[in-house]
Design brief:
Elements (H helix, E strand, L loop, with lengths): L19 E3 L2 E3 L2 E3 L28 E3 L9 H12 L6 E8 L5 E5 L11 H12 L7 E7 L4 E5 L3 E4 L15 H10 L6 E4 L16 H4 L9 E3 L17 H13 L6 E3 L6 E9 L3 H10 L3 H15 L7 H14 L23 H12 L9 H5 L25 E7 L2 E9 L5 E9 L3 H17 L4
Parallel strand pairs: 8-10, 9-11, 10-12
Antiparallel strand pairs: 1-4, 2-3, 5-6, 5-16, 7-8, 7-13, 14-15, 15-16
Helix pairs in contact: 1-11, 2-6, 2-7, 2-8, 3-5, 6-7, 7-8
Length: about 475
């Protein structure tokens, strides 16, 4: 399955006022990536009673050494040059910069605009963390309709509501369908019908270049302002096919929860009149949702978050793909980042029409990794998958790339003929670097291993 799907892994927000370093810890052959929270002591089973149990992994953060020596660009070229020329990576563009100074340490045509795939989500994340409060939530309003036995759902743009009684593993802290039903019951409404208001979105549900076949493949759902489990038909399976009508499916699920005939649910195309608000349920905070977006590379959530940015910028204007992408680019430009050559058709990276450069990606990453980064922006570092530890990197960085396990945090990207990796890494000397690698023209399965080796070499090489 390509990156267009979702992936496993999660973490908890840790904040630190200096550049972050991730520690790799090996216990009985198990790589424990830093920042993972739910570390289980699964190492005791199967051991002889007389054999002492190994201590559980102890993930941790260390402060970077601001006085650590920076890699020498010439030494980096000697080590990375042959990897960059490997046929497996095809046409590679790249940028590696020193986080403390911004000095370019190694590059390959860094300003060439390329298809970025899911590394596009880094721009969406930084725009959201720039524009919105870290604790921003999205509300779904339950209201009494003009007809007294009608329940109106007024979506605010939350695709993460769980159909279970508790939030699922993909979207920690999400609202639940049970909470929504409790709001209705507590208000004393026994509805005979449910109407889902159109909410704050406009335009087509599928982005430019998106194929309808990707819905059944589990990679997308039409972007609508209310969904359950980002449209998944089976919330327990992150690779599940998704609904072609996610708002209607959510309304019918709520109907079953309330004992309403699911056939008496409709999704309105125009604003629905309401008599009184019954209450509302809220999504997880922004930081938690950004983490879910990046760790699981969830395309639906990425599109919802960029619309959230657009709606914050223009509250009276419904948001679609054009407004969402414009809001991301404009927010980053206002932040002082050079968006020259950036073209976005969507905010998730699903569109093959997206273009951006490796240098843009490293500039975006340094907003979180540079010494003057705000505590809130450093949350981005905690939302990135950990090499060999979480999300889209959980089954990578073995073999020749094993030195990067636990030390590389990065966003992956995969489309047909495209493989990307962009993130942060700390050298053995304690120097942190932001890097972006964009490969095209070869099988991503082949390119991926070499990209991992390049990132691992940045970790293991003092390069002086």
């Amino acid at each position: 399955m390509t990156e267009r799907g979702v992936w496993r892994g999660r973490g908890r927000t840790w904040r630190i006022g200096v550049v972050l370093v991730v520690v790799a810890l090996l216990v009985a052959g198990l790589v424990a990536a830093a920042l993972l929270t739910d570390v289980r002591d699964d190492l005791r089973g199967g051991r002889e009673a007389s054999t002492p149990a190994a201590p559980p992994p102890s993930p941790a953060l260390l402060a970077a050494d601001g006085a650590a020596p920076s890699p020498d660009p010439a030494a980096l070229e000697r080590i990375l040059g042959p990897l960059a020329s490997a046929p497996a990576v095809g046409d590679l563009t790249a940028s590696v910069v020193d986080d403390a100074t911004g000095q370019v340490l190694w590059e390959r045509r860094p300003r060439d605009a390329k298809v970025p795939a899911s590394t596009t989500k880094l721009l969406t994340a930084v725009a959201a963390l720039t524009r919105l409060p870290a604790d921003a939530r999205v509300d779904t309003v339950l209201a009494r309709g003009a007809e007294p036995d009608t329940l109106v759902v007024v979506p605010g743009g939350d695709p993460t509501m769980s159909r279970g009684a508790e939030p699922g593993p993909l979207f920690p802290g999400a609202a639940t369908l049970a909470q929504a039903a409790d709001v209705v019951r507590a208000a004393g409404l026994t509805p005979a019908r449910i109407v889902v208001s159109p909410g704050p979105y406009t335009g087509p549900g599928l982005g430019p270049g998106w194929a309808t076949s990707e819905i059944a493949a589990g990679n997308i759902a039409p972007i609508q302002p209310w969904m359950l489990d980002a449209g998944r038909l089976d919330p327990a399976d992150e690779y599940s096919p998704r609904s072609a009508e996610p708002a209607l499916a959510a309304g019918r699920a709520l109907a079953r929860e309330l004992g309403v005939d699911p056939e008496r649910v409709r999704v309105a195309t125009e604003s629905v009149e309401t008599a009184a608000e019954l209450g509302r349920v809220s999504s997880a905070p922004l930081t938690e949702r950004v983490r879910s977006m990046l760790v699981h590379s969830d395309n639906v959530l990425a599109e919802a978050i960029c619309r959230e940015v657009a709606l914050d910028r223009n509250p009276d204007q419904p948001a679609g793909f054009t407004a969402g992408t414009a809001a991301v680019v404009e927010t980053l430009t206002e932040r002082g980042l050079d968006m020259t050559g950036v073209h976005l058709d969507d905010c998730s990276g699903m569109s093959p029409g997206n273009r951006l450069s490796a240098s843009v990606l490293t500039d975006v990453l340094r907003t979180a990794a540079a010494p003057d980064a705000t505590r809130e922006m450093r949350d981005l570092l905690d939302t990135l998958p950990v090499a060999a530890g979480s999300g889209t990197l959980i089954d990578r960085f073995d073999g020749p790339a094993a030195p990067g396990a636990g030390w590389v945090r990065a966003k992956t990207g995969t489309l047909a003929g495209t493989s990307a990796l962009a993130g942060t890494v700390t050298s053995t000397d304690g120097r942190t670097m932001s890097f972006a690698l964009l490969s095209s023209g070869t099988d991503p399965a082949d390119a991926r291993a070499v990209l991992d080796q390049i990132a691992a070499a940045l970790r293991s090489c003092g390069c002086r």
